[in-house]
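**Backbone shape codes:**
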Amino acid sequence: MNPFVVHTGLVAPLDRVNVDTDAIIPKQFLKRIERSGFGQFLFYEWRFNVDGTPIDSFVLNTPAYKDSTILLARNNFGCGSSREHAPWALTDYGFRAVIAPSFADIFYNNCFKNGFLPIKLSEEQVDELFKRAESREGYQLTIDLQEQVVKDSEGLSYPFEVDSYRRYCLLNGLDDIGITLQYEDKIAAYEASR
């Protein structure tokens, strides 16, 4: 995984509650076994008409938010099925983080395992970010995981909480396999001694 230390990016405001994983990546696109290739299908039924043409009104199809790397969302983001493809699709599309007041537990945990940072802020803080993202063209945020703060160029600064183990893994670009491989020499030595 790529380490996540500090990221600055354009913010896309997705103003919907209860965004479920089938909306994030519809079931008909789950045939791949690799983690890549899902970004083109992200929010497919909201992004595209039946004939495959873009729905102009969807936030990611508007020029102002097309190259966003930080998704702003509402309560209960990632609810529904436990598919790990949801954070894969968000990451493959180019997002590095999602900010919302609350997340579905399984989605929240899957994000960390895939190098994608979910950030919980209060509803009031998220409301303020929506106002700024919708009223300022090119609105960007900087997420500093080392300092655990979200900030913008106008002085807004919101601290956020993250589990210390998950923070360590993201800062160092380690998933569960990467953590284990840190001890590869010791594992090999043990196996040789048996």
